[in-house]
Amino acid sequence: MLRHAYFTSRFTSQVGQGVFLAALVLLAGGTSTPALGFSGILAGMLAGSVLVALPAGLLIDRIGPPRALALGAALRFAAIATGFVAAGQPERAVAVAFLYSAASQVFSPAELSLVRTLSADRVGRVHVRLVALQHLGQLVGALALAPLLYRAGGTAWVLAGALAAYALVVLIAGALALRLRAAPTLVRGVRRLPAWSEAFAYFGGEHRAAYALGLLTFAEIATKTLSVALPFYLRDELHLGATQVIVLALLGGLGATAGLAWAHRALTMQRASHAIRVALAASVAATLSLAGVAGALVLLVRLSPAAPFNVATLDLSFAVAAPAALLLGICFSIAPVGARTIFSETAPPGMQGRVFATQSMSTDALVIAPLLLAGLATDAAGPRAALYFVGMLGAALFVALEWTRWRGRRELVPVPIDAA
Description:
This protein is mostly helical. The protein is about 85% helix and about 0% strand. It has helices spanning about 1-30, 35-65, 65-80, 85, 95-115, 115-120, 125-155, 155-180, 195-205, 205-235, 240-265, 270-305, 310-345, 350-380, 385-405. The longest helix has about 40 residues, at about 310-345.
């Protein structure tokens, strides 16, 4: 029963988030400079994560994840409510985005910290379901509910829909906090506030956690860069048609589904460490193959009179891009599941709020510079340069992480749930 409520909260919160993010896009689009408005929203989101994550993690460990989840849901509800103030003045959408991101630094790590409480035996399986519910909920919210609400009453109705979803989340999270207060497996908050530096010491002393942090950071950089550069690369440099691009997108989705299905069936703590290493190496190989092998084939066709240019280019480019898309889908679905499984299993119960919050803050802080460089590379030399940049960055990261792994850094054994 508790798991059902927990998963219902996850799905509902992701639906509400999808609707709310659509509302933010609408608010930013109402400015005189929409591109600047969108950039401001992203900046507000990143600022909320970087500035608030560490104190939020301390708060979660102080009061315990169940109560922190209820508090985070209430804070998200309040942040969404401020969106009505920005409805007439879209420039205020940046402040709304910051408030929502700040509230998320309490809600999201608390939600992830509850995984060990609700399922001490198959942590990986719970993380698979959380990732699946995240994607499903955001798709329902952003692509189904938000357009319907906008047609019904404009931006105000979209905000109202997000607010209604989070009203339900507040109720569910409050009920979970009350029920888990008496549960025997409750991970209780620490009695005194420890230094947040303990979380950094955890990542420094547990090489599997450091590897997971590196993988999540690379996955964030890669997915954001590829989502912008890859469509232009496929169309303008590989000369693929619209139908083939759609097929590649479907293959990516199929790969993600296959990756989650495998993780749900077979991922354990023992396999997670190996899985994230393979995911990083394979995603780097797929990215470099897209940038190098496919491009080289196109160049060979241009220089060869043996076959018509258009037909040969399309066939060869698609032959390389199709398995790369499938592989990227698999890797980027396994990455968050494997990484979070390691955090849940190895971080002490009284420190999980800080661990997940530190990971969120570190990832958001570390992706800023690479994303800017990838954008500059795209503008200066085209989308192929952005793919090369991401691939080489991932390769360098893989070498660095493998070096730290082989240095023999100590591994923390999984912590019993009642050890807090």
